[in-house]
Each structure stands twice: as structure tokens, then as C-alpha cells.
């Protein structure tokens, strides 16, 4: 490909709307252009990269014996009502009415569609296991699209769906996809960490996210550098720590337990937050307990969390086994506690379920709300002043916590989600009656798994991690071209002839080569070369050519290798093989 005949609109200036490094570089390097909020055109260079990522995915999916198909983006809303997910996705769903007044969903994912296909064509245990996959554009009405194609309203996704006769079969299908994902990300130049995750609206009890550490990541993960434990913050386990209750000791048994002081009501006029109450009463947040009133499937529940911790609604929802969890309104709080919002406490609560995070067990003489306007209690104590119905891990993990597996320090870092795998089980097959005849002649629901990869996220994340001040540094596996030829003063006959000969020779042996045949200065050519990030550049200059020498510049390291023209092909092949 010749630069002058191609379309690579590079930019010198940094786009004002671009926040993330990848967003800025992808626009400047001429990979993408924004059409509307969350919608991008992939320009020729960007499309070449996307296709390479897709080819890697296809190769690994095929090796894992998955079968490719292609499903419609437009989905009848009835399928979403049948599965029960129409309300779950809420405003994220993009829908429209067709001319027959039928509601159509622009597919954010395809569990319903594939389940409908399978229930009509897979009806015997002899047809399973079977896994289907597709690479397709998806649609979600993101409230705040960010970071270019990392979080967009229109995105490209590889989604796969496995169908098995039993849970043992699902375990095998899941493992196949899990291992395929590890290879895919490695081949794309990414070090992905598989973390325990929440299944969310997708359903199922077991799921893993494949995350790549990045400062631009909107997700947070907790991981242990010592033993390798990793989990998303939504499910990261908090190890019960008796140190707070025992003055720093590692066991619950203490020689001189604190003496419980009398409960006392104090004035806190206009002060309701942990920070402000603590400042007024000169009490640290870890000596306070906040009472959060939730509504779980239309029933109020009080959740007790230590003042220096945050509630984890994913854990709370899972513990309560409720379909819907939301913070209670002011009216519900007043009815449940007898007091206004901001002053809720556990003492005096009646006819409401009280669950408490493990971190408050053993606390003595702590501060709580008094269920009265402008009032709090000091010296509150468990069992004497209120009862806890159940104890559980209900909070967010922090960097002060220890690893739940090896007891070492935990790290919390930003990450970008690359892929997500789920053991769906019967969630869709039972709701949509996807059944098969087993060996015993009985109808049984199929056991499902689903497996997603953000294709354009891979592209953006590689840029996020592989760059320098000059531009992008592409891994060879997904680079738009493998080699860029940079002739200095292309109009000079000897240089032009040499560049053309090298260009033709490399293309003939299958090396993807871009020839910068523009009538531009060396400075512009070098700057553009470093910006778009092609792994190897061949620089042809007058001085070197007189000696029969050309230069190979390695984008990743900046190393320059002088080689004879006759040995150039072998050197390039050797570099591409490493």
C-alpha cells in the first residue's frame, strides 16, 4: 500500500474531547473519527487492526470447536419479555417502533436470540455439547460514553454461547473458553488477569472477567501480588479482621475487654454524614456504624456497615437473594425507623430485618443514628441496645484489608474489562423452555454458558498500554502494517528505485508493507511513522545508499540497525519471527 493512495489523516494537535491516552492517539493517528457521542467511524488503518484482532479471535474460537454464525441486531421485544430481562437492562436498551407498531430491540447482547434458535433445532442430548459464536456490532445507550471506543454506545463484540446436557459438560465448555481467552489476549499483546466477578443482569452463579490493568480503566479490581488472588471489587471477599475489636490482636480472645458504657443520646443539629458527625463528636469513622435502609423486593431491610467502610450492594443483593435492591426513599425510611433520612440507627428498630457486616462484630461503645431528627447515640452496643438477625460480608474491600487467601497485603487498581465469561446454567433455558430429550427419554433444560470479548476494546487497550510520547507502538500481531518504508527525498531517482524494489520484494513474500511515497520532509515522515506505530521502518537515505546500506528502525526500542540492501529481506524476516 502506498501512503499517497491510502487514507491516513494524522493530526498534530491533541483533540480537546479526548480524555484517555488511547482516545487521543487513535484520533491523531487516523484510526477513528467521532460521528456522534459514543459512535465512531473506523478509518482504514483502524479497520485493518480490527480485522487482525477478529482473525485472532476466530482462530482461537475455531480451535476451541466453537461454530461461527451471525445473528440479527434487530430483536423482537417479546424475546426479552420472555427471558425477563427487559426491565433489568432498563434505559440501557435502545428500542424503536417499526411501521407495524412492534417494539424492536437493538441487541446489546444475544442470549435470547441464540436460545430461541437452539430451542427450535437442538432437541436431543446427541446434539450436545455445542458452542456458537459471532462477531457483531452491539448497541447500548450508555449514560456517559467515555474514552473513545473503550466505552461507546455502538461497539463490536465477540459473543459465544455454549449448550450442554449437564453441569459437568458446562464446566468443560467454560474451561475451553477460559483457556481460549487467555491465548487471545496474549496474542494481542495484552496481559489479562482473570478475576472472580459478579454476573449482573446476565445471570448465573459463576463468572470471570478478564481485566487489564490501566489508569484509564473504569473498573477496579483487588488482587494479591503474592498468591495471585484476583476479584472485581463487586465480589472481592473481605477477610474478617478481629484487630479492630481487640486493640490490634489477631484473635478474638482478649484479656481485658472494653467495658460497655451507658447508652447516651446526644444532639447533632443539622449533621448527618459520617464525616460531619465524627468531626462534631470527635469520633473516628471506625468507631461509628451507619445504618443503611434498603428495599429488597419491596421489603425494607437495615444494613449495618462500619463508618469507614462502604456498603457493597452486589454482596447485599446476593446475600438477600433478592431480584431488586435499591436505597429506600425518605417516606419508607420514616415508616421503617420512625425518624428522618440521615439519622437512622439500629436501636429501636421493629419489624425490619437487620443484617450486619462482619467488621462491626465485637465493636463496643460506638456511635449510631438515634432515629430522631438531629440526634445520635454514643456508647451503642450490640445485643444490649439492638439485635442483629444475620452476619455476613457486606462491604467493599479496601487496601487496608488482607488477601482472603494468603493473608498478605492486597492491591486495588484500575483496570479495563476485556472479556467476561459466565456459567448461566438454566437462567434462559428454563425461562424460554429450551429443552432436550435425555437418554432416559425425559425432557430437561439445557445448561448454558456465555462468553463475551470487547473487540474494539482490545484495540484501544493495546494503545493505552503500548505507547510513548511520540505515539503508538503496535505489537506485530495486530499492527496495521508490519513494515513502513521511509524514503528520504522520494523524488531522487536512486532512492525511489530502491524503495520501489524493496516494496515489491517484501509484498511478494507476504510481508504487509506501507510505502511512504509522499513529497514531504523527513521530519514529517518520521513523526507520522512514530505516531501510527508500525513495528519496523526501513529508512532509505542518500548517504547510506551510496554505501549500499539501508536502516531498519525498531519502533518498540528505538534501535537502528544498518544492513546491506541484499540482506534486508532476511533481516526483516528474522525480526518478524521474534
How many distinct folded domains? 3
Radius of gyration: 30 Å
The major pleated sheet works out as: 9 strands, mixed
Distance linking N and C termini: 24 Å
Question: Quick one: how many beta strands?
Answer: 31
Mean pLDDT across residues: 92
Computed structural class: alpha+beta
CATH fold name of the largest domain, please?
BirA Bifunctional Protein, domain 2
**Strand fraction:** 25-35%
CATH class of the largest domain: Alpha Beta
Helix proportion: 25-40%
Question: Could you state the CATH homologous superfamily of the largest domain?
Answer: Bira Bifunctional Protein, Domain 2
Low-confidence stretches: 242-254
**Overall form:** globular
CATH architecture level-2 label of the largest domain: 2-Layer Sandwich
Q: Treating each run of at least 4 consecutive H or I residues as one helix, how many helices?
A: 15
Quick overview of this protein structure:
This protein has 578 residues and is an alpha+beta fold. It contains 15 helices and 31 strands. The strands form eight sheets. Strands 3, 7, 8, 9, 10, 11, 12, 21 and 24 form a nine-stranded mixed beta sheet that branches.
Amino acid at each position: 500500500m502506498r501512503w499517497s493512495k491510502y487514507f491516513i489523516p494524522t493530526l498534530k494537535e491533541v483533540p480537546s474531547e479526548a480524555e484517555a491516552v488511547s482516545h487521543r492517539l487513535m484520533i491523531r493517528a487516523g484510526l477513528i473519527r467521532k460521528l456522534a457521542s459514543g459512535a465512531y467511524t473506523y478509518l482504514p488503518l483502524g479497520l485493518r487492526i480490527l480485522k487482525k484482532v477478529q482473525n485472532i479471535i476466530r482462530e482461537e474460537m475455531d480451535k476451541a470447536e466453537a461454530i461461527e454464525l451471525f445473528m440479527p441486531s434487530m430483536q423482537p421485544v417479546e424475546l426479552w419479555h420472555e427471558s425477563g430481562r427487559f426491565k433489568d437492562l432498563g434505559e440501557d436498551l435502545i428500542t424503536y417502533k417499526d411501521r407495524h407498531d412492534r417494539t424492536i430491540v437493538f441487541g446489546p447482547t444475544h442470549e435470547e436470540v441464540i436460545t430461541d434458535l437452539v430451542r427450535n433445532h437442538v432437541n436431543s442430548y446427541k446434539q450436545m455439547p455445542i458452542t456458537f459464536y459471532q462477531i457483531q456490532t452491539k448497541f447500548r445507550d450508555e449514560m456517559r460514553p467515555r474514552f473513545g471506543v473503550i466505552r461507546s454506545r455502538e461497539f463490536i463484540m465477540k459473543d459465544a454461547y455454549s449448550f450442554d446436557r449437564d453441569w459437568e459438560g458446562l464446566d468443560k465448555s467454560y474451561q475451553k473458553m477460559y483457556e481460549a481467552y487467555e491465548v487471545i489476549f496474549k496474542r494481542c499483546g495484552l496481559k489479562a488477569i482473570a478475576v472472580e466477578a459478579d454476573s449482573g443482569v446476565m445471570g448465573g452463579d459463576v463468572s470471570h472477567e478478564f481485566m487489564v490493568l490501566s489508569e484509564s480503566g473504569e473498573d477496579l479490581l483487588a488482587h494479591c501480588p503474592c498468591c495471585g488472588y484476583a476479584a472485581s471489587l463487586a465480589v472481592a471477599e473481605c477477610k474478617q479482621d478481629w484487630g479492630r475489636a481487640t486493640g490490634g490482636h489477631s484473635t478474638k480472645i482478649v484479656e481485658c475487654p472494653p467495658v460497655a458504657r451507658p447508652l447516651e443520646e446526644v444532639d447533632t443539629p443539622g449533621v448527618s454524614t459520617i464525616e460531619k458527625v465524627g468531626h462534631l463528636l470527635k469520633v473516628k469513622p471506625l468507631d461509628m456504624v451507619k445504618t443503611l435502609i434498603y428495599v429488597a423486593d419491596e421489603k425494607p431491610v437495615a444494613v449495618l456497615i462500619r463508618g469507614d467502610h462502604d456498603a457493597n450492594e452486589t454482596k447485599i443483593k446476593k446475600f438477600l437473594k433478592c431480584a431488586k435492591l435499591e436505597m429506600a426513599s425518605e417516606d419508607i425510611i420514616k415508616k421503617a425507623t420512625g425518624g428522618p433520612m440521615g439519622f437512622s440507627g439500629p436501636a429501636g428498630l421493629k419489624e425490619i430485618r437487620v443484617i450486619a457486616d462482619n467488621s462491626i462484630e465485637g465493636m463496643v461503645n460506638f456511635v449510631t443514628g438515634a432515629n430522631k431528627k438531629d440526634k445520635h447515640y454514643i456508647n451503642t452496643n450490640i445485643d444490649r441496645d439492638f439485635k442483629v438477625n444475620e452476619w455476613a460480608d457486606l462491604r467493599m474491600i479496601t487496601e487496608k484489608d488482607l488477601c482472603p487467601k494468603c493473608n498478605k497485603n492486597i492491591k486495588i487498581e484500575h483496570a479495563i474489562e476485556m472479556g467476561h465469561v459466565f456459567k448461566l446454567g438454566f437462567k434462559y433455558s428454563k425461562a424460554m423452555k429450551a429443552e432436550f430429550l435425555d437418554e432416559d427419554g425425559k425432557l430437561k433444560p439445557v445448561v448454558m454458558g456465555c462468553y463475551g470479548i470487547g473487540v474494539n476494546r482490545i484495540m484501544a487497550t493495546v494503545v493505552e498500554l503500548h505507547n510513548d510520547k511520540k505515539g503508538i507502538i503496535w505489537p506485530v500481531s495486530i499492527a496495521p502494517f508490519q513494515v513502513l518504508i521511509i524514503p528520504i527525498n522520494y523524488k531522487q531517482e536512486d532512492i525511489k528505485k530502491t524503495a520501489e524494489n524493496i516494496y515489491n520484494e517484501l509484498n511478494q513474500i507476504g510481508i504487509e508493507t506501507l510505502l511512504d511515497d509522499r513529497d514531504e520532509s523527513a521530519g514529517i515522515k518520521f513523526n507520522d511513522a512514530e505516531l501510527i506505530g508500525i513495528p519496523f521502518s526501513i529508512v532509505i537515505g542518500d548517504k547510506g545508499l551510496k554505501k549500499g546500506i539501508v536502516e531498519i528502525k525498531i519502533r518498540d526500542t528505538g534501535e537502528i540497525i544498518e544492513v546491506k540492501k541484499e540482506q534486508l529481506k532476511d533481516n526483516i524476516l528474522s525480526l518478524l519471527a521474534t
